[in-house]
Amino acid sequence: MYSTAENTPVYLTSEIRALEAAAAQSLPQPGLMERAGRAAAEIARTLIAAGRVLVLAGPGNNGGDAFVVARHLQSWDFEIDLVFTGDAAKLPPDAVAAYQAWLASGAGILTDLPIDAHWDLIVDGLFGIGLQRDISGRYADTVAAINRLHVPVLALDLPSGLASDSGRILGRAIIATHTATFIAIKPGLLTGDGPDCCGEIHICDLGIDAAAIKPAQGAVIGDNILHIALPARRANSHKGDYGSVGIIGGASGMLGAALLAGRAALHLGAGRVYVGLLDPNRPGVDLQQPELMLREYQEIPALANLNCLAVGPGLGTSPEAGKCVRTALAGKLPLVLDADALNLIATDPALQKQLCNRRNENVLTPHPAEAARLLGATTAQIQADRVAAAVEIARRLHSHVVVKGAGSVCATPDGHWFINNSGNPGMASAGMGDALTGMIAAMIAQGASAQTALLAGVHLHGAAGDALVAAGNGPVGLTAGELCYAARKLINR
After folding, report:
1. Would 448 disulfide with which of 120, 211, 310, 443, CB 3.0-4.6 Å?
2. What's the pTM value of the predicted model, to 2 decimals?
3. CA distance 257 to 169
4. pLDDT > 90: what percent of the chain?
């Protein structure tokens, strides 16, 4: 996939269009299409030293990029089969020039995939960031045929059929092994179905300083956030220097959720962790983690030394649970709200108003279904535009938000948003969200701002899952309990 030590900017399609327009007025020759095609061709020849390449050129500018790629690869002695699926008379001006340059080289054009041919690499230039409708008919058949070949695929800008802003598959999508994305990263590469489609991402800036033209509202969460969230500890310190976390949840039948959140908070360095349980048959001690201080849920908000309060893991939706949320919102502590705390807020306008009027910081950690309830939408609508959903929840509820899932999207009340690229499918298991809640709360208790704790917690949560998979402990059977230990090991590096 793609990794960075810094917060790499991410741009929406409309912003990329604005960058293209600005660059077209100021960049010397060659133009953007020539630069893009040459950059992608350079990547292609690092993937195979020689051989036969199938180039798919579609009906728009993405097809023009493909013609440029084909021309360069042919000049470097690769054998090229170019399939053009559009109408030359309807191509945009730059794509027409690329089309004519390809013909001028003496090369031919195919209109259908050759039967029983073998290729060493496929270049996907069917559709780019402008695609708005589902792929169907002949194009859907072509995409399906390419995916059946099991040949390495280099996608131009993004895999054909993937929505640039949302990562949603539009009917069908190319499954690429590499993606050469132009100017800057697009959110669809990193969230939703993007991680399953794009393979390894290569950023080709084409000589454009995007940040100088238009600073981005979005970014990839970088590893550097971990150093900001939890700086090195002083030798002369004690547990009181590292904050106290309170957690409320654990109704009958859901005790484990609150305990998992508590364990995660301890493993992320909180000096003290108190867990208030709604289960009337609550244990007096967590035998696996006796350092946790278990209490009746009513006691937690009244504790004098708390630095952060997390509400929701295993909370349920009983009247007692509703009272817990109202009490937490009325308090002055930074809050981390998850699970049923969010469901209760979603159905109660009074709680929503109370949340919006808080003067301290709030972190909300919904999965897509919980996000849908908060916005009065469907889960499908949330997944269709995860960035917009996160930004809207943050704006409406004056909170820092993560919409969890593949490529979790974080958003801040001022409209900035961030995509996380750590994590793996093994983390689709019970208790993972509870562990994340505890990790974020621990960082806030130790002095991190809500934004820093959210970004660092989300990134570390995924990175810990990746470390477990790298060590052979997943993805199948990965559990939230072992994630806490992996996160502790990573943060101590």
Report:
1. 443
2. 0.94
3. 33
4. 94
